[in-house]
Amino acid sequence: MRSDGLSRRHLLGAAGLVAAGVAGAPEVAAAAPRTAGADVTPARPEIEFAPDVDDLLGGAYRAALGNLLDTNTVAYDPAVYDRTGLLTDPPGTFFRAGGGYEQPWTRDAATNSWNAGSLLAPAVARNTLWAVCERRADGSLLVQRDNQWWDQIVWAIAAWHHHLVTGDRAFLTDAYACAAATLGLLRATRHDPAYGLFRGPAYMQDGIAGYPSPPYDPANDSSFVLDHPHTDTLMCLSTNCVYHGAYLALAAMADAVGEHAAAGRYRAAAADLRAAIDRHLWRPDAGTYGYFVHGAGERAGTLETYQEGAGLAFAVLFGVASPGRARSVLATLHHEPYGAVNVWPHFARFDDAHPGRHNVIVWPMVVGMVGHAAAAAGRTDLLARAIGDVARLWRADGHFWELYNARTGAVDGGWQVGRHWPAEPDQTWSATGYLRMVHDGLFGIRCTPTGLRFAPSLPDGWGPVTLRGLAYRGMTLDVTLTGAGRRLVSSTVDGRRADLVRADLTGHHTVRLALG
């Protein structure tokens, strides 16, 4: 079970959005797909920064690769995890959630595949995504059902991204059916028509330390959020932004398989949800979004105005925030000395000496999302800050822990229900969050149905930066960034001007991107 004490969580076998990889042209990516078992030993890229920063930033990148591809790529028991019949051996492995968590978990499986796994080890990522799904008695597919429904639909976003990376048509067909069925069930059971929002706790806050009182009940010693009153009716920023991204992912999938009418319905639903988020969660007085709306109890209808790090990042990445609002959100986002935090400021029962486990504390995965959002919105300075924050945390002992003290940088599991909790070692999404910032933020890798595009953000003094031996479909790439900033002044593939690395290429190719 998770260290948050979520003993009720069901285990398998036990009983825009261009920046985020969701939006894209509807054409089908059929060229040079990766086969399901192709990367038994996936190629490992190498990175080189300018000498002054390579030891820190490059060292963290190399360690993050080891975390994902060595420490946390593990063999699975097919009798437990292959409940769909879609896992493959080779490779016979998946990404576990971390050193303290042997399972992949729904949210972790999707996040780790989306962050970096699908690009670096697509066959392992494919297994990881299917390991958190099930096949029903009628043969249909569904993301596994448990009592943490709010984290299920991020699977759709990761699945569409996986197809964009690999071009795997068989995966797309099954994934679209699975995601559509899952979203349909969640809309039928978790959508509040009065608000136009989805009910459920926040994306990262499955422990009650992530919420003020109410809904936290001081007389209740359970750490699990749903054990506290009315938490099932909360309408949170992060969760609703994820649903918005999932609608767009489903629309793209539907177009890719020829279901154009369904695609239109998903896009219309996304627009309705975005309007509801704006209506209920946007704070015009503060130029940012609030954390959640109470759905029941004494504060029903009230917006809590705390800043939610993951929610604000998702608002940018999933296209909920307009470009102007995205700039405002990032300009007003609070940072502690060691990074953006889950929720700010402290709730009344916590303080700097006793930070809440899901409150003013640093989860590197959240920092990774914030850093990517900063790059997507043009804030190269904030991307640099986020990459530097996680790299500094890594350098303390060479590991990527689950969470850290926001003021000291010490490994710190935070406080919850009156006691101090541990932080687990070698957390997979702490490492993949860093990889995401490098691949999607720094290099600006954009997977599309027709190939790779780049929208890099290179902080001053970091370049030249070269990523060598990056495997993509049937090719390997060496990508070099020179200059600084975001304005792309030259883009070449094998010495010829081009803004796309075509998906049908094979062999080795060199990409050079000059910024100025």
UniProtKB/TrEMBL annotation:
Gene3D superfamilies: 1.50.10.10, Maltose phosphorylase, domain 3. One of its GO terms (biological process) is carbohydrate metabolic process. It comes from the Bacteria. Residues 450-485 form the Glycoside hydrolase family 65 C-terminal domain. SUPFAM superfamilies: Six-hairpin glycosidases. PROSITE patterns: TAT. Residues 154-430 form the Mannosylglycerate hydrolase MGH1-like glycoside hydrolase domain. PANTHER family: ALPHA-L-RHAMNOSIDASE C-TERMINAL DOMAIN-CONTAINING PROTEIN (PTHR34987:SF4), C, PUTATIVE (AFU_ORTHOLOGUE AFUA_3G02880)-RELATED (PTHR34987). This is Alpha-L-rhamnosidase six-hairpin glycosidase domain-containing protein.
